[in-house]
Amino acid sequence: SKVESLQQNVIESVQTNSKNLQESVDQSLQSKVESLQLSLEQSVQTNSKNLQEQVDQSLQSKVESLQEAVIESVQTSAKNLQEQVDQSLQSKVESLQLSLEQSVQTSAKNIQEQVDQSLQSKVESLQQNVIESVQTNSKNLQESVDQSLQSKVES
């Protein structure tokens, strides 16, 4: 009878310890998953914000630079036009008006090409950063879960 009672106590103790171990593992895993999910969300938000800031700065710089170039080109062409008008005939005026239009069109085309290239480069770079961040966080989550399980099993 005492043996049976002792056996019953041992069985209940093992069951209780197993239940406590499972609950502890579950809580630890839940905490790790939530922490790394939050870290991943923050990383994606930060990368998105950085992308927007870099694109905004790049666009602003390109627009200002090419606006200045267009203004200088127009001013130079206008000055040249006036000098040649004073010295020449109406055909000279028409020729330089065409030159001015072509210069403005070329500047507009150049600004569009530079903005497109800058945006493409920034987007590709930040997409790569987001992918690497997600991969790193996934790897860290797996390692943390593996270590937690290993530690619980050993203990």
Please describe what this structure looks like.
The protein is mainly α and 155 residues long. 97% of the residues lie in helices and 0% in strands. It has helices spanning 2-87, 90-154. The longest helix is centred in the N-terminal third of the chain and has 86 residues, at 2-87. It is rod-shaped. The mean pLDDT is 88.
Number of helices: 2
Q: Structural class, please?
A: mainly alpha
How do the SSEs run, as a string of H and E?
A: HH
Strand content: under 5%
Q: Summary?
A:
About 95% of the residues lie in helices and about 0% in strands. The model has no long low-confidence stretch (mean pLDDT about 90). The protein has 2 helices and no strands.
Outline the secondary-structure elements.
Layout: H1 2-87, H2 90-154
Helix pairs in contact: 1-2
Question: Which key phrases capture this entry?
Answer:
rod-shaped, 155 residues, 0% strand, mainly alpha
